[in-house]
Amino acid sequence: MEHLEFEEFYEESRDACLRAVLATTGDRQLAEDLVAEAFTRAWMSWRKVSRHPAPHAWIVRVALNTRVTWWRRRRHEVALTGHEAVVPAAADGPDVDPALLAALRRLPRRQREVVALRVFLDLDTETAARALGIAPGTVTAHLSRAVAALRGELATVNSQEGER
Amino acid sequence: MNDNDVLGTVRDAMAEVHMHTPVQQLVAAGRSRRRRRIAGTTAGAALATGLALTLAIDSPQVNAPPVAAGNEVHVHLAAFSVDTNPDGTVTVKMTKQESLDPEIMQRTLAQAGIPAQITINKWCQPTDESQNLEADLKKVVGEEWQPDAKGDVRQDEQRDLKKDAQQDEQRDRKNDALQGKKPNINKDVKQDDHSGQNPVMVITPSAMPPATKLIIGMRTEGYQPDSPSRVAVSMGLVPDDAPLTCTTDVPAGSSPRS
Question: Is residue B241 part of a domain?
């Protein structure tokens, strides 16, 4: 029963979670790995996660936290081995608009996270604020700034495409 | 382009992004991780148990069983001491009943040639009173008192105390007989009578009839404080196979003295 519930949850929310994490990380493969890791942890703690008010927000939060952990681990490995820092994999896959990803990547991290939760998970301001651990007013402010920045980026992209 | 248009454009741009990882892969990874976690926990528990056992085996034991040299035993532990005397008697000194491990004391006494059954806050008597070998018990067990670290009782005072106790016991038995009371035929050592001293028993193993054992019930400090009985240790001598009836109530004692 629990397994079926989890499967259903996965089918319903996996794409939205992936898009949210992709919008934040800008790395298609990394985003898929992070989301898979978060869903695996969700399966292991499904009793707890299933009772979460916004389980898909939990997934995205865990994925982003995992990214920080992985990054720290990689950074540590770099320090030990003396190799160059890990270069992010190519951000854009065949199913992603590279110009949009580039525009998102230029946003500050917190603004990207707010966009991810509000746009791809369709969370309201309160829930997004709880998921990010910030005040609702801060969410609104971040979203407003992000939209303003993206509007400029998208206008530039559209004008460049129009010139071609 | 208003705010909704901007957000709509972002949403549409990602419309073709799909998660390709099959759910079975996640579930398999979760199961595998869970198994490892359980195995780790089990291994941790096993390691802890092993460590505890190692410590228990390797650490010097407070109540370690004695090493007997022939039938001679000289064991001095926190709870009791057992010493074989040159005349073949065995001196048993109780020092701290609270920390006494009855099994270890039984083994120690057995190595000193004294079969015994020891109980803490539990007193046993043969179900058939005719199996209580009172006459032999008197030959087997002598009782004396020694001061502990706090006490300071000289040998002559000990003798006086012992004599007084014997006289009191005889007087009380007579009184019991006059009053028609049924005496407790076990040998009792009382608390308080010798405050600050430890009960010392001198046991003569050779006086024990074949196939008999001592039954020794000990009372820890503070056990049934409301009981009027002041019995600290109660002893009896019974055949090995005598059925016993036991109680956790402190025995009344053979010679209650006020």
Answer: yes
